């Protein structure tokens, strides 16, 4: 049975997709991102799924994408920020090397401001991100087998720390 070398979790802007790609390169492994898997299945961007089908439908597609990727993928897997909201997904993560990318509000706001539209953050990114981060922090912490701080650090530095901290 295959299993990912690392599963990255954390809030929007923590760098799951960026670091995931770098880490996969460093490990000589493949990279997979469940947001991209959902987009492939839905045939449209995540933001369109939220607007046209609703968040609940997105969460269903996401839970299925995570289930499939955990069973099929043997490289680095980045999850969508909210994938850990589903109990079934939290249970499936047990026993995998789960890396929580920690980020403070200031750095997260700066990073998401630079990137593409995020459907949960369209109205007031700073306050929505603050609430979401506070609600989810205990869940990310509980699921993590490795916690890596990302504030003020380059993607390369963060990737180095993960490589050192992963099980051999
Ligand atoms: N350590 C870092 N330092 C500076 N910028 C970063 C860092 N990590 C990521 N970024 C930048 O922040 C933005 C968000 O990163 P990324 O898309 O990887 O986050 P994410 O955790 O995958 O978010 P989401 O949950 O929305 O998918 C990107 O523009 C990326 O280049
Ligand atoms: O944190 C979240 O709930 C989300 C994060 C993104 O990765 C996407 O999965 C989507 O924008 C929702
Ligand atoms: Mg991402």
TrEMBL record:
This is Shikimate kinase. Its EC number is 2.7.1.71. It catalyses: shikimate + ATP = 3-phosphoshikimate + ADP + H(+). It is found in: Cytoplasm. Gene3D superfamilies: P-loop containing nucleotide triphosphate hydrolases. Its cofactor is Mg(2+). Pathway: Metabolic intermediate biosynthesis; chorismate biosynthesis; chorismate from D-erythrose 4-phosphate and phosphoenolpyruvate: step 5/7. The keyword RNA-binding does not apply. InterPro entries: AAA+_ATPase (IPR003593), P-loop_NTPase (IPR027417), Shikimate/glucono_kinase (IPR031322), Shikimate_kinase/TSH1 (IPR000623), Shikimate_kinase_CS (IPR023000). ATP binds at residues 13-18, 118, 153. Monomer. The lineage of its organism: Bacteria, Bacillati, Actinomycetota, Actinomycetes, Streptosporangiales. Substrate binds at residues 35, 59, 81, 136. Binds 1 Mg(2+) ion per subunit. Belongs to the shikimate kinase family. It comes from the Bacteria. Residues 2-168 form the AAA+ ATPase domain. The keyword Disulfide bond does not apply. Mg(2+) binds at residue 17. Pfam families: SKI. SMART domains: AAA (SM00382). It comes from Sphaerisporangium rhizosphaerae. It is an enzyme of class 2 (transferase). Keywords: Amino-acid biosynthesis, Aromatic amino acid biosynthesis, ATP-binding, Cytoplasm, Kinase, Magnesium, Metal-binding, Nucleotide-binding, Transferase. Catalyzes the specific phosphorylation of the 3-hydroxyl group of shikimic acid using ATP as a cosubstrate.
